[in-house]
Amino acid sequence: NFYDPMDCSLPGSSVCGISQAKILEHQVFRINVRNEDEISKLNQLMNSDNLKLDLWKSPSTLGHPADVLVPSFSLREVKSFLEDHGLEYSVTVEDLQTVLDSEDRKLQRNVRQELSSNCFNYGAYHTLEAIHKEMDFIVKSYPRLVSAVKIGHSFENRLMYVLKFSTGKGSRRPAIWLNAGLHAREWIAPATAIWIARKIACDYGRDLVITSILKKMDIFLLPVANPDGYVYTHTHNRLWRKTRSVNPGSTCIGTDPNRNWNSHFGGAGTSRDPCSDMYHGPHPHSEVEVKLVADFIAHHGDFKCFIDLHSYSQLVMYPYGYMTMRAGDADELDIVAQNAANAMASLSGTQYRVGSVGSTLYASSGNSVDWAYDNGIKYAFTFELRDTGFYAFTLPADQIIPTAQETWLGLKTIMEHVQNKI
């Protein structure tokens, strides 16, 4: 999808002949829920297997709406159900295919420009191959500060490697892990992560905060934590969320990599159904992509901070997700998250809500930040980046750099706090 599938002369033409799944006339509904009875009715609707609905955003608390992708063949039945049960709704996307086609045209225009200029455009979305190429270029450009650390291969045998920013000359020092792209369709997260990689490299020695942090700590950044799923969103299904592992006994592919961590595995907010977008997998760390990160962090042994970038909803959250009970360090984590949100708002006024995952978003057992916190990484945060639902997973490319710039201010606020506490 990154290249014109009709033009096999371009590099990467192995995708030729593979067309994106068409989702003609699919719509996105925003459904308001005002009380427990309406949440129950919404759950009844979502559990109708024949409708094939995709819950994009759960109503985390009363007063916050749900976003639901409704296939064209279910539109009449869903509208009828909502009206019969008195549920308020609006159609936020009239024809999702039109949105995706527009995004695709911009992707293809960007690749033509990059091929002619040989310059990476940070204000555009990219394939995994292009992101890896830019990671290599950053290493080559800043060899004293940045190195590539190979941590293994994905289920489909794609190389997984992280950028390590360090002034420690090989010594093992306290570290920060920045994770992005666990959910394949959340393209703004890898786009933000690769911008941040370049920002860290460029600002070292110029920006007092990042220079001070890197004198004391290392930063490890994984821009695409689910490479197989990410590639699949470019070649087959733009809205794919999971990994691409095979599930024995099922024709359904993949596991939700943010329900697969060994922390309250299989609890609230997960599914035992391999066909579900929230399938937790057969056992903790069954997904090689999750296991590689968990093993690397555990083997290193001195990570002080873990931050996972997702989209969408504009949230800064901390543990726990498996329950609404407060974590032991919730008071401090809330202050840090609020400071990060304030820093992000200072740039262009973008408002981020703050709270624990379970109380702010929805129950999600087996998630990455709960695992990090349970494994001694006190400063564990999840960011849900732009927007709040107007564009959802198809945030226009012209919002990449503004999103990355404000996110960087939030990350820097958290990292500076961590540095001051060690």
From TrEMBL:
Q: Which residues form the Peptidase M14 domain?
A: 124-418
Top-level division of the source organism's lineage: Eukaryota
PANTHER family annotated for this entry? CARBOXYPEPTIDASE A4, PROTEASE FAMILY M14 CARBOXYPEPTIDASE A,B
Q: How does it assemble?
A: Monomer. May form a complex with proelastase 2.
Principal EC category? hydrolase
Q: Which organism is it from?
A: Capra hircus
Q: Name one GO cellular component term.
A: extracellular space
What does the UniProt entry say about where the protein is found? Secreted
UniProt keyword terms in alphabetical order: Carboxypeptidase, Disulfide bond, Hydrolase, Metal-binding, Metalloprotease, Protease, Secreted, Signal, Zinc
Where would you say this protein principally sits, based on its record? secreted
Record's protein name: Carboxypeptidase A1
Enzyme Commission numbers on file:
3.4.17.1
Q: Which InterPro entries match?
A: CARBOXYPEPT_ZN_1, CARBOXYPEPT_ZN_2, CPA_M14_CPD, M14A-like_propep, M14A_act_pep, Peptidase_M14
- Enzymatic reactions: Release of a C-terminal amino acid, but little or no action with -Asp, -Glu, -Arg, -Lys or -Pro; leukotriene C4 + H2O = leukotriene F4 + glycine
Q: Which residues form the active site?
A: 384
Q: What does this protein do?
A: Carboxypeptidase that catalyzes the release of a C-terminal amino acid, but has little or no action with -Asp, -Glu, -Arg, -Lys or -Pro. Catalyzes the conversion of leukotriene C4 to leukotriene F4 via the hydrolysis of an amide bond.
Q: Name one GO biological process term.
A: proteolysis
What protein family is recorded? Belongs to the peptidase M14 family.
Cofactors per UniProt? Zn(2+)
Corresponding gene?
Answer: CPA4
What terms describe the molecular function in GO for this protein? metallocarboxypeptidase activity; zinc ion binding
